[in-house]
TrEMBL record:
A Pfam family that the UniProt record links to this protein: DUF7218
Organism: Mesonia mobilis
SUPFAM superfamilies xrefs: Rho N-terminal domain-like
Domain Rho termination factor-like N-terminal: 47-75
Stated name of the protein: Rho termination factor-like N-terminal domain-containing protein
Compositional bias ranges of the Basic and acidic residues kind: 1-25, 38-48
Length: 78
C-alpha cells in the first residue's frame, strides 16, 4: 500500500525541480507543508526536542544520537 501524499501540488512541484520521490514526499507530508518561506522559526531558535520531532516527522535516521547542531545539519541537508 502506497503512502498518501498530503500536499500533492507541492510534491509534483518538487519532483519537477529534480527532487527524489522520497525527499519530495517527506517535504510534502511535513506539518508545515505549503507554508510560505521565511515564516518558520529558525532551527537555531528551536529546542533540541523540537528539532528531534521535526527530524522524526521527515524520517531522518539516527536522530536519537544526534546533537542539536547535527539535527540542524541533517534537517537542512536531507
Amino acid at each position: 500500500m502506497a503512502k498518501q501524499i498530503k500536499n500533492e501540488d507541492q510534491y509534483e512541484a518538487l519532483r519537477d525541480q529534480g527532487y527524489s520521490k522520497e525527499k519530495s514526499a517527506r517535504i510534502a507530508n511535513s506539518p508545515n507543508s505549503g507554508k510560505k518561506g521565511g515564516k518558520a522559526e529558525k532551527y537555531e531558535n528551536r529546542t533540541k526536542e523540537e528539532l528531534y520531532e521535526q527530524a522524526k516527522n521527515v524520517g531522518i535516521e539516527g536522530r536519537s544520537t544526534m546533537s542539536k547542531d547535527e539535527l540542524i545539519h541533517a534537517l537542512r541537508n536531507n
